[in-house]
Amino acid sequence: MTPRVCKIKHNPPKSYGDCVAACVATLIDRDDVPHTFDGRDAESAWSDLRAYLNQHGMTLSVFASEEDPRDHMGVNNPDTPYMLMCSTSEGNHAVVCVGSEVFHDPSWYKMIIRGGTDMGVWVVGVITCLK
Length: 131
Known about the structure:
Blueprint: H1 19-28, H2 42-55, E1 58-65, H3 70-76, E2 81-88, E3 91-98, E4 101-104, E5 122-129
Protein backbone atom coordinates (compact mmCIF):
# COMPACT_ATOMS: atom_id res chain seq x y z
CA MET A 1 0.00 0.00 0.00
CA THR A 2 1.27 3.39 -0.97
CA PRO A 3 -0.21 6.08 1.31
CA ARG A 4 -2.20 8.83 -0.45
CA VAL A 5 -2.88 12.24 1.07
CA CYS A 6 -6.10 14.24 0.84
CA LYS A 7 -6.32 16.64 -2.08
CA ILE A 8 -9.39 18.56 -0.90
CA LYS A 9 -9.72 20.41 2.40
CA HIS A 10 -12.83 19.82 4.50
CA ASN A 11 -14.51 23.23 4.65
CA PRO A 12 -18.30 22.77 4.35
CA PRO A 13 -20.30 23.96 2.57
CA LYS A 14 -17.57 25.24 0.21
CA SER A 15 -15.80 21.88 0.02
CA TYR A 16 -15.96 18.44 1.58
CA GLY A 17 -12.71 16.65 2.35
CA ASP A 18 -11.73 13.62 0.30
CA CYS A 19 -10.31 11.42 3.09
CA VAL A 20 -12.48 8.47 2.00
CA ALA A 21 -11.13 8.68 -1.56
CA ALA A 22 -7.56 8.96 -0.21
CA CYS A 23 -8.08 5.90 2.00
CA VAL A 24 -9.54 3.82 -0.83
CA ALA A 25 -6.70 4.97 -3.13
CA THR A 26 -4.23 3.84 -0.47
CA LEU A 27 -5.94 0.47 -0.03
CA ILE A 28 -6.07 -0.34 -3.76
CA ASP A 29 -2.91 1.51 -4.89
CA ARG A 30 -4.65 3.68 -7.48
CA ASP A 31 -4.65 7.44 -7.94
CA ASP A 32 -7.93 7.75 -9.87
CA VAL A 33 -10.42 7.05 -7.07
CA PRO A 34 -13.34 9.48 -7.35
CA HIS A 35 -14.27 11.86 -4.54
CA THR A 36 -17.82 10.68 -3.86
CA PHE A 37 -18.31 12.10 -0.36
CA ASP A 38 -18.57 15.60 -1.80
CA GLY A 39 -21.69 16.80 -0.02
CA ARG A 40 -24.17 14.38 -1.57
CA ASP A 41 -26.09 11.90 0.57
CA ALA A 42 -24.14 8.93 1.96
CA GLU A 43 -26.18 6.32 0.08
CA SER A 44 -25.29 7.89 -3.29
CA ALA A 45 -21.66 8.35 -2.24
CA TRP A 46 -21.30 4.66 -1.27
CA SER A 47 -23.13 3.55 -4.42
CA ASP A 48 -20.89 5.62 -6.73
CA LEU A 49 -17.77 4.42 -4.92
CA ARG A 50 -18.88 0.79 -5.31
CA ALA A 51 -19.60 1.37 -9.01
CA TYR A 52 -16.03 2.62 -9.44
CA LEU A 53 -14.61 -0.37 -7.55
CA ASN A 54 -16.80 -2.79 -9.55
CA GLN A 55 -15.22 -1.47 -12.76
CA HIS A 56 -11.90 -2.67 -11.34
CA GLY A 57 -13.16 -6.08 -10.14
CA MET A 58 -13.58 -5.04 -6.50
CA THR A 59 -16.30 -4.17 -4.04
CA LEU A 60 -16.57 -2.48 -0.66
CA SER A 61 -18.32 -3.91 2.38
CA VAL A 62 -19.08 -1.57 5.27
CA PHE A 63 -19.93 -2.50 8.84
CA ALA A 64 -21.06 -0.22 11.65
CA SER A 65 -20.25 -0.71 15.32
CA GLU A 66 -21.21 1.22 18.42
CA GLU A 67 -17.87 0.21 19.95
CA ASP A 68 -14.38 1.05 18.66
CA PRO A 69 -13.67 -1.95 16.36
CA ARG A 70 -9.87 -1.73 16.35
CA ASP A 71 -9.23 -4.20 19.19
CA HIS A 72 -11.63 -6.71 17.60
CA MET A 73 -9.98 -6.28 14.21
CA GLY A 74 -6.53 -6.70 15.78
CA VAL A 75 -7.49 -10.02 17.40
CA ASN A 76 -9.66 -11.47 14.63
CA ASN A 77 -8.20 -9.86 11.50
CA PRO A 78 -4.64 -8.84 12.45
CA ASP A 79 -3.33 -8.61 8.87
CA THR A 80 -6.42 -7.12 7.23
CA PRO A 81 -6.14 -3.56 5.89
CA TYR A 82 -9.37 -1.57 6.14
CA MET A 83 -10.79 1.92 6.21
CA LEU A 84 -12.05 3.22 9.55
CA MET A 85 -14.53 6.08 9.62
CA CYS A 86 -14.53 7.91 12.94
CA SER A 87 -14.65 11.42 14.36
CA THR A 88 -11.94 13.89 15.25
CA SER A 89 -12.01 17.41 16.64
CA GLU A 90 -12.46 18.51 13.00
CA GLY A 91 -15.51 16.26 12.35
CA ASN A 92 -15.96 12.94 10.58
CA HIS A 93 -12.77 11.45 9.16
CA ALA A 94 -11.42 8.25 7.59
CA VAL A 95 -8.07 6.53 8.15
CA VAL A 96 -6.47 3.31 6.95
CA CYS A 97 -5.88 0.66 9.61
CA VAL A 98 -4.25 -2.75 9.67
CA GLY A 99 -5.37 -4.94 12.54
CA SER A 100 -5.74 -2.67 15.57
CA GLU A 101 -3.36 0.07 14.42
CA VAL A 102 -3.76 3.16 12.27
CA PHE A 103 -1.51 2.54 9.28
CA HIS A 104 -2.11 5.88 7.54
CA ASP A 105 -3.99 9.11 8.19
CA PRO A 106 -4.52 10.85 4.83
CA SER A 107 -5.05 14.29 6.35
CA TRP A 108 -2.50 17.06 5.91
CA TYR A 109 -1.84 16.99 9.64
CA LYS A 110 -2.27 14.27 12.25
CA MET A 111 -5.84 14.04 13.49
CA ILE A 112 -6.71 12.69 16.93
CA ILE A 113 -9.45 10.04 16.81
CA ARG A 114 -12.12 10.96 19.33
CA GLY A 115 -14.87 8.38 18.74
CA GLY A 116 -17.45 7.14 16.29
CA THR A 117 -18.85 9.26 13.46
CA ASP A 118 -21.45 11.95 14.06
CA MET A 119 -24.06 9.19 13.61
CA GLY A 120 -22.73 7.62 16.82
CA VAL A 121 -21.10 4.61 15.15
CA TRP A 122 -17.68 3.56 13.93
CA VAL A 123 -17.66 2.36 10.32
CA VAL A 124 -15.27 -0.27 8.97
CA GLY A 125 -14.86 -0.59 5.20
CA VAL A 126 -13.21 -3.67 3.71
CA ILE A 127 -12.39 -3.86 0.00
CA THR A 128 -12.40 -7.29 -1.61
CA CYS A 129 -11.97 -8.74 -5.09
CA LEU A 130 -15.15 -9.89 -6.83
CA LYS A 131 -13.53 -12.95 -8.39
